[in-house]
Design brief:
Blueprint: H1 13-17, E1 32-36, E2 40-41, E3 53-54, H2 67-77, E4 84-88, H3 98-107, E5 111-116, H4 123-132, E6 135-141, H5 147-154, H6 159-173, E7 178-183, H7 191-201, E8 205-210, H8 217-222, H9 229-246, E9 250-253, H10 262-268, E10 280-283, E11 288-290, E12 302-305, H11 311-317, H12 319-327, H13 342-345, H14 350-357, H15 365-373, H16 382-390
Parallel strand pairs: 1-4, 1-10, 2-3, 4-5, 5-6, 6-7, 7-8, 8-9
Antiparallel strand pairs: 10-11, 11-12
Helix pairs in contact: 4-6
């Protein structure tokens, strides 16, 4: 059985807490590459936060990561602690040397995960990935149990049928994927149907990601199709409560721990507490080094380019990364500075924080809105604990 993939993590707690090897004490180990192999995609999804180029099913060579540059990046990063890579895009399987890349990364001893729309995965590729590579975790996007709704959301007729076929090939090969549903007002009533479809297809888990105000998703929010605060919180409660009780498949919805109930924290621990951004470097299809895929739309979160700039120097000395690490040591701004969970949460998703207010280390949009509405849980405040101690 394969593990469930997490679309925005790729690093377990043990790896995240490991001491840097051969690095200065103030520079964390570089553990994970997020490889955006292709800046193009064969679908044109309405919500995509990275806004890849729609390439009509064909790769665009100029927008695919150069294999030689990838080799040089791996060679530079392995002495710095590199142990895994997430393959994503755009659509990673569009890369004309995709199989060569996964074989190479496997040969380098890296643990692999992948995000894909699965439309280009056939039986031969699925078997190769399972038997010949170190790929263990796969996440596949499905947004409705109804073909016409999924196709409309993904911008291409036949996307649903092709994705279901691809999932079938993965499952048959032994790579049971996580299904990721991008949730907006138009598919809220399809959640249970999607869970049942995922179970029927043999998926390992289902994750629910509300459409964010990023990339193409910004237009959806302007049109009133994105979830508001109340709908977002209700989705989390529904997934982590009655739906988890009803269905045997694992279900997840990412949420800052301060916005979890006590019961959820006791039952699920730190699930979804935040990403391990201090140990991750994104590499875009253009060869640019970035925080993550947000660099596709936010140039100031790109730190240099492979073949032109030293990866080691970028990782150790780029001002944005240096400042981010300093800020993540605390004290934290806003409500995070008074939150019991700040040391684990680390302000949750820094990319979403930046999209919301232009600051990487800042309260997550969900927590900030909870404070604005006066509904942030008082029991999660350090000051509440201090008042209780002195009462």
């Amino acid at each position: 059985m394969t593990e469930a993939a997490d679309s925005c993590d790729g690093l377990d707690e043990q790896a995240a807490s490991a001491s840097p090897t051969g690095m200065p004490p103030d520079v964390p180990a570089l553990k994970v590459f997020y490889l955006y192999l292709s800046a193009g995609c064969n679908l044109c999804c309405r919500h995509c936060w990275i806004t890849p180029t729609f390439v009509h099913g064909q790769p665009v060579p100029a927008e695919c990561l150069d294999f030689g540059l990838l080799q040089s990046a791996v060679a530079a990063a392995k002495p710095m602690g590199l142990s895994s890579a997430k393959l994503t895009g755009g659509e990673p399987t569009l890369h004309p040397e995709f199989r060569k890349i996964v074989d190479y990364l496997t040969g380098e001893g890296l643990d692999l995960s992948m995000e894909t729309n699965a439309t280009l995965i056939d039986r031969d590729l699925a078997v190769h990935l399972r038997k010949k590579t170190s790929l263990k975790r796969v996440a596949v996007s499905l947004d409705s149990p109804l073909a016409e709704e999924h196709d409309r959301f993904r911008g291409r007729d036949g996307a649903f049928a092709a994705a279901v076929r691809g999932i079938g090939h993965l499952v048959a090969a032994g790579l049971r994927p996580q299904i990721i549903m991008s949730v907006y007002r138009g598919n809220l009533d399809r959640i249970e149907g999607l869970i049942e479809l995922a179970m029927k297809l043999g998926a390992l888990s289902v994750k629910f990601n509300p459409v964010t105000r990023s990339g193409r998703g910004e237009e959806m929010h302007r049109q009133g199709q994105g979830l508001d605060f109340d709908e977002w919180v209700a989705l989390i409660r529904r997934v982590r409560g009655p739906l988890r009780e009803r269905y045997p498949i694992h279900l997840n919805a990412m949420v800052p721990p301060a916005m979890s109930t006590v019961g959820e924290l006791l039952r699920y621990g730190g699930e979804g507490a935040g990403c391990h951004v201090r140990h991750i470097l994104g590499i875009l299809g253009t060869g640019e080094m970035a925080l993550c895929g947000i660099g596709r739309n936010v140039p100031e979160l790109c730190f240099g380019k492979l073949g032109q700039d030293s990866l080691r120097e970028v990782w150790m000395h780029h001002p944005t990364l240096v400042q981010m690490r300093k800020d993540l040591q605390g004290p934290f701004p806003g409500i995070c500075g008074d939150c019991l969970h700040a040391g684990r949460c680390l302000t949750h998703c820094l990319a979403q924080n930046f999209e919301a207010n232009g600051q990487l280390v800042s309260p997550s949009p969900l927590c900030a809105e909870a404070v604005r509405r006066g509904v942030f849980p008082e029991t999660r405040r350090i000051s509440w604990g201090q008042r209780r101690t002195t009462a």
